[in-house]
What we know:
The chain is of the alpha+beta class. The protein has helices at about 55-65, 120-130, 130-140; strands spanning about 5-20, 25-30, 40, 45, 65-85, 90-105, 115-120, 150-155.
Amino acid sequence: MARYPTRHAVSAGGLVFDDRPDGRWVVLISRRNAAGALQWTLPKGGLEDGEDLEAAAVREVLEETGLRSTITGKLGVVDYWFVWKPDEIRYHKYVHYFLMAFVDGDTQAHDDEAEDVVWLPLSAAVERLTHPNERRLVQAAAPGGDGDAVAVRNAAVEAGPGR
Length: 163
């Protein structure tokens, strides 16, 4: 296998929640991975110039879900490796996730990075998520759970961005 140069990348995102009489509901998005397969994930994205992690998370969640939210705490950090073959670069990516309370908005107002945006009961969201590392984060967001300082790792992915 060819040796690619390694770079680090940082992103931020969040788990939007709404505590309802029937339990905690959360938001997931669907998008296509580099191979074209549909994946259910948490909204996330890169930091813009001068932006801190929290500002990036709030912006990315708004763009990808159409929902305004406020950060209530840190959810955790996911790190994983992938090779972006078009540029022949190996990335070690760190995604900082925040727990975010729903304020207002419309899931139909999401950008084109997400194919679909859905509200689900937390337990159903855990089942639907594609990546085990995100499942662990969402499980930690259950009311009474320990959402702070969760760190999870995933093995290398050789296809492109994804987990």
